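[Structure tokenization] protein backbone as discrete codes
[Encoding] learned vocabulary of local backbone shapes
[Protein] chain in single-letter code, fold in tokens
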Amino acid sequence: MKQHDAPAPADGPNAEQAALLDSLRRLLEPVAALAVAKGVPYAAVESIVKGAVVAAAHAAHPGLPEHRRVSRISASTGINRREVTRLTQTKAAPRAAPRSLATEVFARWRSSPQYRSRNGRPLVLPRQGPAPSFETLAQSVTRDKHPRSLLEELVRLQLVTLDSKADTVALAREAFVPRGDTARMLGFLGANVGDHVSAAVANVLGDGTQHFEQAIFADELSEHSLEAVRKVVSAQWQVLLKATVPALEKLIEADRAKGRKQDRRLRIGLYTYTDAMATAADANPDTDATPSER
């Protein structure tokens, strides 16, 4: 696969600063579009950005005594000392990501051989009874919540369908995208994109090997071709899902059995994005239509 290298920018700190600002602009444009679409005022967004900048500067100077840290943060961010003091004193404690039992049930149903047919399709499960059933599936994820409650949640999210006459449950879709639950979808947005950006930033600030973060990109495609690509990507995601979820479950159990400290988390993602190509005036004349990897 051919690798296209971007034209080398001019040397010097000014060129790097310009590249950084351009990158930040591209990151913030979709965030701005979301805020405008949802009616979030600029002042609220500004407050979040300001708080995040102060928190980052606070974390960057862990060894400084508190009476010097405010001045250092103010100098490095350009935010006045009074505002820095206010923000550091009201800094919210980090929240642990809530466990999504519905997500875990859905993922295990999609990936576990016990709940798939010979051709790899998720089975239609009896609601109750011995394995494989929805009851045993739910209990394999948690015994702290009744299977009926988990079923009701999955039905509410339009992820499964319940046939009351046959007393069976079937998956309604291939991916966990909860329709009609904006709060949950926004939670996924923050978690998935937040971790992706964090991985990319850590690689830029480090030596580039901290996290796996790659992408394939191509242009000169038709809408017909994009539909074909969507099918290829969806199939590859199912392969990754079926291989990864059982492997992770075994690793978690092995860590527990060995008494290892289980304080690390992992997120693995796959995404596609399509858009119109840049105009001829904006296009890079050094590139061609060969798919490229970065």
Remarks:
- The longest strand covers residues 160-163.
- The beta strands are 125-126, 160-163, 168-171, 216-217, 292-293.
- Residues 101-171 form one domain.
- Residues 36 and 42 are 9 Å apart (CA to CA).
